[in-house]
Design a protein that fits this description.
Length: about 280
């Protein structure tokens, strides 16, 4: 009887493991298919994309599409511009959000609970709701067609990032902070020398998402910037056309490969810290 129960338990355990691996493999395949289609499509000629019957693999591998990306547009210049703006604003918003999250986590003052409730309430406000009022404000300040909207937005922090830092800093033992105060450290020094060096997972998480927010943005640069100083998202959609104004799809797909490749590399390098930051930031309320 015991042997039969053990066998059933072993079979059930193996079945559960098999189903788990099957679901993971299925999800991986479903996620990989669009990426594979993007890469394969970027190596075709435009007529092959609409050919019938469907041409799965390129009849002729058009590696020149990847060269044409740089010949048709100042791709490297626009990419560099977008990269440095994304890096600068992500660094700024990370530092500001960390300071605010530190204050909410480690100090209790009258009204701090209500202020944090307002921060949480801002999470449910869609960005599209504030888009027009923000544009009107920046237009009156004559800051359109500049990068100040991104810089000022980063200087104000982010409700979601503040929440992540606050939750993460709550996990720090109070004794660590008290020992630093005994040694004569002030609040800002405690924040810089104790909390920030030990917050690498959440810093990596916030930096990644903040960088991605600028790198992958299409709507904001379309509204605030003109074609001479626009960012990569807009240039990707408007820069690859023939003299008749028809979009060159395969070259656009090649540009998209360049577009997503840096973020994929960064994620695979920092994925452990990113996942750890997301998980540990929700451990304590």
């Amino acid at each position: 009887m015991n042997l039969s129960l053990q066998m059933r338990g072993l079979i059930q355990k193996r079945m559960n493991r098999f189903l788990g691996y099957f679901v993971l493999i299925l999800v991986t395949v479903l996620i990989t298919i669009p990426i594979a289609a993007l890469v394969i499509g970027s190596l075709k000629k435009d007529p092959d994309l609409i050919a019938y019957p469907i041409v799965i693999l390129p009849i002729k591998w058009m590696w020149t599409n990847y060269i044409s990306v740089f010949l048709m547009t100042p791709f490297l210049k626009v990419m560099s511009r977008t990269f440095f703006l994304a890096l600068g604003t992500s660094t700024l918003v990370t530092f500001v959000s960390a300071m605010v999250g530190f204050a909410f986590a480690r100090y209790r003052v009258p009204g701090s609970g209500q202020l944090f409730t307002i921060i949480i309430a801002l999470l449910i406000v869609p960005g599209i709701v504030t888009l027009i009022p923000q544009f009107l404000v920046y237009a009156r300040l004559k800051l359109t067609n500049t990068y100040w909207p991104w810089i000022l937005g980063a200087a104000g922090g982010s409700p979601y990032f503040i929440f992540l830092f606050r939750q993460f800093f709550l996990t720090f033992p109070k004794e660590l902070e008290e020992a630093a105060e005994v040694d004569g450290c002030g609040a800002f020094r405690i924040f810089l020398q104790i909390f920030m060096p030990n917050a690498k997972p959440v810093i990596a998480t916030v930096m990644f998402f903040a960088f991605l927010g600028v790198w992958g943005d299409y709507l904001t640069p379309l509204i605030y910037l003109n074609d001479n100083n626009t960012l990569l998202g807009v240039k990707m959609a408007t820069g690859f056309k023939n003299p008749n104004g028809i979009t060159l799809t395969t070259i656009s797909l090649a540009a998209n490969v360049y577009y997503i490749l840096p973020m994929m590399i960064v994620f695979f390098i920092a994925q452990k810290n990113i996942l750890k930051g997301v998980i540990t930031s929700g451990l304590k309320g």
